[in-house]
Design brief:
Elements (H helix, E strand, L loop, with lengths): L1 H16 L1 H10 L21 E5 L2 E4 L4 E4 L14 H13 L10 H11 L5 E5 L2 H16 L3 E5 L22 E5 L4 H10 L4 E6 L2 E2 L5 E2 L2 H14 L2 E5 L10 H6 L5 E5 L9 E5 L1 H4 L20 H14 L2 H24 L4 E6 L2 E6 L14 H15 L1 E2 L5 E3 L6 H18 L6
Parallel strand pairs: 3-15, 5-6, 5-7, 7-10, 10-11
Antiparallel strand pairs: 1-2, 2-3, 4-12, 8-9, 11-12, 13-14, 14-16
Helix pairs in contact: 1-12, 3-10, 4-10, 6-7, 11-13, 12-13
Length: about 425
């Protein structure tokens, strides 16, 4: 009851401070089930309604300001007002929005992406990470003539590819088999057991929605070896993790998949997705090839996403900038973890660089089974406590850092986290 009572107190304080968010949520329920159109944004008693954003700050409809560490679940890498991106989008507004044909930005963006990520020889654009993963799987199924797809427990690859708690009734009806992330021998056995039916192995190199658990290098190397051995297509879902260094986590680990899916921040705040891989796999989409695959989508190459994404990648998030950001945010994680240990709070930050999660325990888990059963409760408490302090985390306890954050700002975030965790840790059972 200690934690439940504390959670009730924090929620009551939240309700008192946010009458306008409450009113807007109640009105929205007349038109949207639950007053919401993105399930991940909901939290009890009602979600915060945002009015505006600038740099790394947000303002809600009740006038409170927050440091934004929700980061649009990694899509907000550039913050809310990168001047280069804003200028590029204003230029688009001056020159037309729906251009009914190939535009000047898309091939340049494709070239940058193929130069950046080792697995990409050719790619196609789409509208989201969900779409990107669907098309990558369909590419693998077409290429191999097989149907089965290996995924991992608690993985998230989009709204119709969700595997927490054994899967979702909203999932597409592919032939899935599930293995345990970072369990080398059990996963190897699973691949070999299904080797004649396996079209694809789909993996996040950082298991995101489960709590940002990094893959072990040996685990990814095993997947590469076994996929090659059995003829399955190895797909890295780097929708989030492509921001972790100049070549994403495939560059970090030195493991090159057959295909990569992208999304989130690469649209510079607009809808975006991409999937690609070797020329041999992707040439199936070449309209000049007899029997080519059809891949339509009105907004696949929309000029806003193409231009914003190109401006961001070319000017603000260059390879050198990506490496520097990874180093700076890794230093932040290390510093916070050291201070949590010094305070004997038995809490740590998992993840890599700018993508982090809170966990109970002195060491971050390497497998889903190691996650402390009270971790989500602690995250709920810390989330509401941090809101009171002017720091916005995701409701599920993820922390996403952004490029506008200075070292001074990172220091503020660290202090706020330490104070909130110190206040709430005692309410949660060990």
């Amino acid at each position: 009851m200690k934690a439940a009572g504390r959670l009730d107190d924090l929620r009551e304080a939240y309700v008192r401070k946010h009458p306008e968010s409450c009113a807007r949520h109640e009105r929205a329920q007349a038109w949207m089930p639950g007053g919401n159109t993105r399930s991940v944004l909901h939290f009890d008693p009602f979600p915060l309604v945002i009015a505006s954003g600038r740099a790394d700050m947000l303002t809600d409809v009740d006038g409170y300001e927050y440091i934004d560490c929700a980061g649009e679940f990694s899509a907000g890498l550039y913050g809310h007002s990168d001047p280069v991106i804003v200028a590029a989008l204003h230029e688009v507004l001056d020159n037309g929005l729906v251009l009914s044909g190939p535009n000047t930005a898309e091939s340049e963006l494709a070239e940058l992406l193929c130069q950046r990520f080792p697995s990409l020889e050719r790619l196609r654009f789409c509208n989201s990470g969900t779409e990107a993963n669907l098309f990558a799987l369909l590419t693998a199924i077409n290429a191999t003539g097989r149907k089965r797809v290996l995924v991992f427990e608690d993985a998230y690859h989009g709204g119709v590819l969700t595997f927490a708690g054994g899967g979702s009734p909203m999932n597409v009806p592919f032939d899935f088999v599930t293995a345990s992330f970072n369990d080398i021998e059990a996963t190897r056995a699973c691949v070999r057991a299904h080797r004649n039916e396996l079209a694809a192995i789909l993996v996040e190199p950082l298991l995101g929605a489960a709590g940002n658990i990094p893959a072990e290098g040996a685990f990814l190397a095993m997947l590469r070896e076994e996929a090659t051995r059995c003829g399955a297509v190895l797909i890295f879902d780097e929708v989030k993790t492509s921001r972790l260094g100049r070549a994403g986590l495939q560059g970090h680990y030195g493991v090159v998949p057959d295909m990569t899916t992208l999304g989130k921040y690469l649209g510079a705040g607009l809808s975006f997705g991409a999937f690609g891989g070797s020329k041999a796999l992707m040439e199936r989409y070449d309209p000049g090839v007899p029997g080519s695959l059809k891949h339509a989508g009105t907004f696949n190459n929309n000029i806003m996403s193409m231009s914003g994404g190109l401006a961001g990648l070319r000017n603000s998030f260059t390879p050198d900038a990506a490496d520097a950001f990874l180093q700076r945010t890794e230093a932040f994680r290390s510093t916070v973890n050291a201070r949590l240990a010094q305070a004997s709070l038995d809490v740590c930050l998992s993840g890599i660089g700018s993508i982090l999660s809170l966990h109970i325990g002195a060491q971050a888990p390497t497998k889903v089974a190691q996650i402390h059963p009270q971790t989500m409760l602690l995250r709920q408490l810390v989330h509401l406590n941090c809101l009171e302090r002017g720091l916005l985390l995701t409701p599920r306890g993820d922390i996403f850092l952004s490029l506008p954050m200075t070292d001074l700002r990172l220091g503020e975030i660290g202090e706020c986290l330490l104070e909130a965790i110190s206040e709430e840790r005692h309410a949660v059972a060990d």
